[in-house]
Structure to design on (712 residues):
DNA sequence: GCATTTCTCGGAAACGCTTTCATAACTGTC
DNA sequence: GACAGTTATGAAAGCGTTTCCGAGAAATGC
């Protein structure tokens, strides 16, 4: 019958008001820690009296369970790892916003890594996340990533992975994508609706599924509306910059039959095209109507404000996170999850650069 | 003498290759877990032979200590909480980049929260971080925050807090700031060097230390260079938007003696001013030379490219994190940390909008 | 050859929580 | 009143580490 008054075992306790623990509540009420735990977690076999007393005291002491202890005991970290190529980026930071909101709602926290488009860095971060015992991973691949053992490592340990935006087709994992084809179609059809007859397209590099999709949408819209596809009106930029947009726009206007509309693969290219047109005395949208893609913050501040195709970044983050958490929960019940692919719709954001 | 072969206590172990633990190494070598631990952590009282064997096997099994168990044992989380008003924001995402780099270097991970400029949300996040037992907190206050109990709560528990950018003067905590006065002075002196005689200033709202500082730098530069300060040339926008920039620029050009140079409190206002000037037929920089502040991504894409004062966001993140981690370490040794304030220098980013 | 120091190592407790199992006290039944 | 069934609770194990303490063996000192 050892009545012992906690002889400061808690590694001396000189510091200020340490947070209350289960045993603190238990001691004060003269009951055991396990009863307190059950009372707080709503187990049925606790007498109403005890439960009430426990809840009241917990409230009074501002008791919060120590998540670290819970994690150790429950074999989960309640952390999801997020790997993206770049943080300082309008689209990705929107995605992060969505991820954080969804994670927060489900009681998860986010561990963030940026690969800076380096495959080595991405693998290093993956190893770190694996080591940190994250419960799941959201990843948008670096452009330079060619092999995927680092993703396999997660699967091998049973940690679910959901890919978004920059995905690898053949990896068996859930994916969240944006419907670039639809976006390209919407943009082009909008220009058609504005009366454009010769619509040019400044496209991105060959390969990436995003730029290919936008190009496909462009062609689809032309066909559906009975407009001819003229290869001369399609220009490719290998690196999508404002300067590339300027140069390619100059080429387009030098054609015998220059375009009266432009759909650019990215706002940046569209803005370059706008600058070029203005410098050479053309009026936007009167001479050439322009629409970009992505709808970054810069679209609304250029002159004239640039129409664009909005990519639902926030929504993408939320969707991917919901998917991931669902898979985490399934995994905890030892049930296998079948990969799903969600395709998110884009939305036209019409401004002055394309309306006439 | 109970020889017992781990009868799958590890909560059944049906799953795939679980990560190796200390005891796994210990069992295979026929030694105790404590010896393994000490061998790996380089304690002196381990024989070279055992140490070598342990290290080799740990390597082979890809052993990594479970951070959750370490955290519980060591009473630290190795997580730092970061609270910012907005993630989708060029400056703040740069800061986050710096924070992440520094945190990573010191073996810390980052838990991110955004207040969305809401005081309630900020307090809620603070409570969450407190509950999560983060080792330290980096915060840039929401604009709407008026009371600071939530920061006090961290101090009360001995969790260091470092404030950056949006700081509260009277709170005793380390701070990292940007030298807005210097930035304002640099910008104005640059315009003076370009031959501007009547330099206008579109300033931000009264109150915030940032806008006041930029204004002070503006006056300082005028005085130092013997130019008169003309209140008519200073316009205040309550909300800093492109539209405000346009309207105020129109007012300035309507003056009897309009300006030949403009220093705007923000790139956004500067861009608004540029749009207004171009629409009314003025040439930039010929008629009015313009410089903004912040040097966001948009500065380089407008036409002409906008000169600006670069705020070292990345550097700010890194500096704040270094400071915080220093305080965390001091706290672990029960040594009090004296708050420091670091002021970071800005840098001119000269582009076409101001050079003539 | 005995006492003492040095060198290695194992045992055990602790971090805070959850959950299984056991038990004690009741309640009801025949 | 003996038994089964219920209800409320406690003891203890376990999650994976780290670290204090002490024990045995080897080495040293006299």
């Amino acid at each position: 019958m050892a009545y012992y008054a906690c002889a400061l075992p808690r590694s001396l306790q000189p510091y200020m008001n340490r947070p209350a623990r289960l045993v603190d509540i238990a001691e004060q009420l003269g009951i055991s820690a396990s009863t307190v735990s059950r009372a707080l977690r709503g187990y049925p076999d606790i007498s109403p009296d005890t439960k009430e007393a426990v809840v009241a005291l917990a409230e009074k002491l501002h008791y919060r369970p120590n998540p670290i202890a819970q994690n150790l005991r429950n074999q989960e970290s309640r952390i999801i790892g997020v790997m993206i190529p770049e943080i300082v980026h309008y689209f990705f930071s929107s995605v992060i916003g969505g991820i954080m909101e969804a994670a927060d709602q489900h009681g998860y926290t986010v561990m963030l890594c940026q690969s800076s488009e380096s495959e080595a860095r991405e693998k290093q971060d993956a190893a770190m996340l694996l080591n940190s015992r994250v419960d799941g991973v959201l990843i948008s691949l670096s452009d330079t990533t060619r092999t995927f053992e680092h993703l396999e490592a997660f699967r091998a340990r049973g940690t679910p992975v959901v890919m978004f935006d920059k995905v690898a087709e053949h990896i068996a994992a859930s994916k969240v994508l944006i419907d670039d084809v639809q976006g390209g179609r919407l943009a082009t059809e909008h220009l058609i609706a504005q009366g454009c007859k010769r619509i040019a397209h400044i496209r991105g590099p060959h390969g990436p599924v995003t730029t290919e999709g936008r190009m496909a949408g462009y062609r689809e819209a032309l066909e559906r509306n009975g407009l001819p596809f003229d290869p001369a009106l399609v220009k490719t930029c290998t690196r999508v910059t404002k300067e590339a947009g300027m140069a390619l726009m100059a080429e387009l206007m030098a054609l015998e039959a220059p375009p009266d509309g432009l759909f650019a693969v990215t706002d940046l290219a569209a803005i370059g095209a706008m600058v070029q047109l203005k410098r050479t005395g053309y009026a936007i949208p009167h001479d050439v109507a322009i629409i970009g893609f992505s709808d970054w913050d810069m679209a609304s501040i250029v002159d004239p404000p640039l129409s664009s195709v909005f990519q639902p970044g926030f929504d993408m983050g939320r969707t991917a996170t919901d998917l991931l958490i669902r898979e985490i929960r399934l995994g905890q019940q030892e049930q296998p999850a079948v990969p799903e692919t969600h395709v998110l719709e884009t939305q036209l954001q019409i401004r002055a650069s394309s309306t006439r």
Summary: Residues 21 and 180 of chain B are 52 Å apart (CA to CA). The longest helix of chain B spans residues 313-332. The radius of gyration of chain B is 28 Å. The first strand of chain B starts at residue 79 and ends at 84.
